[in-house]
Specification:
By secondary structure, this protein is an alpha+beta fold. It is 48% helix and 20% strand. A hairpin with a 6-residue loop joins strand 3 (274-289) and strand 4.
């Protein structure tokens, strides 16, 4: 029997005898190294085997992608990661599917980070990380990774150019340009127009034929000009504005703004006679209070909108200082607010009565001339829109109010043009300038020879307001608030904490009804309802004091006198609401007609409505033109009543009926009502800047 190979210590190969003892002796002497070598060989084999398996899974995922079976593609891509967990390429590949196919950007970002951690990096990986951060609205991180992609690819581009790799050069340049395209998205979201334009210009140096970049800078030239204007970089602002003009930017104010910026470079030293103090109320959060159920809370003004607002304020300040020759200026103070809005409230959401700032107004009223409220809310009754004028601000909503202050309400996205436009309405109320929007009616100001809105404002600053005296353009000194009485204020404020604003509104509405009642007992019963809804309603208290005096009820008289004294101590005015005047104007009015975009023109149209069924007695009649909806306000030039075709009475004045309403009531008289006569109401109405305007015409006899 042959000896075993092991026993013989011999190995026969091709008839050669090889002695293994020397090798075995070496292995024994170097045993640790031998096993390390074996381990490394095994690992190498396994790595090769794992990568091969992972590539097979990747190929299967590709097949499913081509067949649009995304779920299976994801499944096999993740199997590839599991098969070769140390290889970052498969994380990178799977991230592509999550980024572009499932649009799960959070998962895609996690996979890209895993790939980077495993050492798999390239310019496209950083580019895609930037894309993920953009979709997740983390714009600062997006900017950082996009620049990391650009820097990485610039290094690779240098290598490709050194190696004269033409295909690599072309591919890398396109990748770099694409990263600049994505940078413009970030800068637009961050409201950084100058950096947006710089990214466009840089991108074009790498790929002048890029399909996106050439048209991008055009839309940001105006915002870049505004940004530079706000920063007082006048030369840079002029360059942007002029480039915007050359590119055909459609903005009515552009020529005027170019002129104004040029003049700001040599603006007189600002030494204001008066600085108009403006409190800017930013509504950060809105709370809708339903009749039943949970309060619905939502964010309002964003950080980007605040940034844009501050930019607009700086430009606005520059313009009024220029127009006034440095004799009038404005200052701004930030005020944060949370808006609470009752679902069935009659007032617009951004109305000061909803801002929960009563105590602030009470203690700070003498600090401010005007308040600007910025909110993205819209009113279900009055429609969304900006507003400028003046009003009394609430100390205790619906109960006590301060003296008159300038009032401006603008939406979150408004620019400096809107701010200037609405603030000028505030100046109109101080200076008695009529009509509003006089730039649409140059005949009302024959000495004004200009044609543009900005030139109209400049002319008034140089003439009307200068003659009046810039020191008169203030509310604080002309309408000071009385000294605060904190103890009484806190008592009444706490008393009203559990009384909804809608109850107070209803009480004020009932007061209007009670004032029309001739029967004192009927009025008394109505005023009792008022005080049940709002126990400190001043007009109701006044009536009750008179009533109980007449009825010799000393105790009740003194009780209400004490209450009236308390409310007077914390009030500079009785209740005033947007809807309060609205109700007073149209109370008991009957709709006799309408206007719409189909019946009015921008130059003016005469409309007629049959009023015969509604004019039944002689007397005085109010005609109210009430805007309901649309994008444009309507101006009413006159209203007239015709009897049997002949003019009976005419009221000529300009009324404005839009989201804001001014002078919309026209008074007509009928001395003798002729039986069977025809009565036709006519009015001339024009759309302001367009015809998208809808409204109702209401008729009410006021001396019945």
């Amino acid at each position: 029997m042959k000896k075993s190979i092991a026993a013989a210590g011999l190995l026969t190969i091709s008839r050669k005898k090889i002695t293994l003892r020397p090798y075995m002796n070496w292995i024994i002497r170097h045993k640790p190294y031998f096993f390390i070598i074996l381990l490394l060989m095994a690992i190498g084999w396994n790595v090769f085997s794992d990568t091969k398996q992972a590539n097979q899974y990747r190929d299967q995922a590709e097949t499913f992608l081509k067949n649009n079976d995304i779920a299976q593609a994801v499944s096999f891509a993740e199997k590839a990661i599991q098969a070769d967990p140390g290889n970052g390429y498969f994380d990178y590949y799977t991230a592509y599917i999550y980024l572009y196919k499932t649009e799960d950007r959070g998962k895609a970002l996690d996979l890209l980070k895993a790939a980077e951690k495993k050492g798999y990096v390239n310019g496209l990986l950083y580019h895609r990380m930037g894309m993920c951060y953009f979709h997740l609205k983390n714009f600062q991180s997006a900017v950082a990774y996009l620049y990391q992609s650009i820097d990485f690819n610039k290094i690779e581009l240098t290598k490709a150019e050194e190696n004269k790799n033409s295909s690599g050069i072309s591919s890398l340049k396109k990748e770099i340009a694409d990263s600049y395209v994505w940078l413009t998205k970030q800068y637009e979201a961050l409201d950084e127009p100058s950096q947006f334009i710089e990214a466009v210009r840089e991108g074009l140096t790498y790929n002048p034929k890029d399909r996106w970049l050439p048209g991008l800078s055009k839309k940001m030239m105006l915002p870049a000009g505004h940004q530079a204007f706000a920063e007082k970089k006048y030369d840079q602002a002029l360059a942007y504005y002029r480039e915007a003009k050359e590119s055909g930017a459609g903005w009515d104010w552009l020529d005027d703004i170019i002129e104004i910026v040029g003049q700001c470079k040599t603006k007189p030293v600002v030494s204001p006679v008066y600085t108009h103090r403006i409190g800017v109320i930013y509504v950060n959060e809105t709370r809708l209070i339903p009749k039943s159920g949970q309060i619905i809370t939502s964010p309002d003004i964003t950080a980007i909108q605040k940034k844009k607002a501050k930019e607009s304020q700086l430009i606005f300040q520059d313009i009024v200082e220029l127009f006034s020759g440095g004799k009038f200026s404005v200052s701004f103070t930030d005020i944060d607010a949370t808006l609470s809005f009752d679902e069935f409230s009659l007032i617009r959401r951004s109305n000061p009565d909803n801002l929960n700032l009563g105590e602030f107004f009470y203690t700070s009223m003498n600090t401010f001339d005007t308040f600007v409220t910025m909110s993205n809310t819209e009113s279900p009754y009055f429609g969304e829109g900006n507003f400028g004028g003046s009003r009394r601000y609430p100390y205790i909503n619906g109960v006590s109010y301060g003296p008159a202050r300038g009032m401006v309400m603008v939406s979150g996205g408004s620019g400096f043009g809107t701010l200037l436009h609405e603030f000028f309405h505030t100046l109109e109320s101080l200076a008695g300038i009529r009509p509003a929007h006089g730039f649409h009616q140059p005949g009302q100001f024959p000495d004004w020879k200009g044609t543009t809105e900005l030139d109209y404002y400049r002319w008034h600053f140089e003439t009307t307001l200068s003659s009046l005296g810039f020191d008169k353009l203030n509310f604080r000194n002309r309408y000071p608030a009385q000294p605060p009485d904190p103890a009484v204020f806190n008592k009444i404020q706490n008393f009203y904490k559990n009384i909804p604003l809608t109850n107070r509104q209803e009480a004020n509405s009932l007061v209007l009804e009670a004032e029309q009642i001739q029967n004192k007992e009927a009025a008394f019963r109505l005023y009792e309802k008022v005080l049940n809804l709002s126990p400190y309603q001043p007009r109701a208290l006044e009536f009750m004091i008179s009533w109980f005096k007449q009825n010799n009820d000393t105790a009740r008289t003194k009780e209400h006198q004490a209450e009236l004294k308390e409310i007077a101590a914390v009030s500079d005015a009785y209740p005033v609401f947007d809807f309060y005047h609205f109700l007073k104007e149209v109370k008991s009015g009957i709709v006799i007609g309408t206007w719409s975009r189909d019946t009015i023109t921008i130059t003016g149209s005469e409309l007629s409505w049959d009023a015969g069924d509604y004019i039944k007695y002689p007397g005085t009649y109010n005609v109210t033109f009430l805007f309901n909806e649309g994008q444009k306000a309507a101006t009413i030039e006159w209203a007239a009543l015709f009897e049997n075709g002949k003019l009976l009475f005419k009221d000529t004045h300009n009324g404005w009926s839009g989201n804001s309403k001014r002078d919309i009531v026209y008074r007509l008289k009928v001395e003798n009502r002729i039986k069977d006569a025809s009565y036709i109401l006519r009015a001339r109405i024009r759309g302001e800047g367009g015809t998208d305007s809808f409204g109702e015409v209401l008729l009410r006899r006021v001396d019945e």
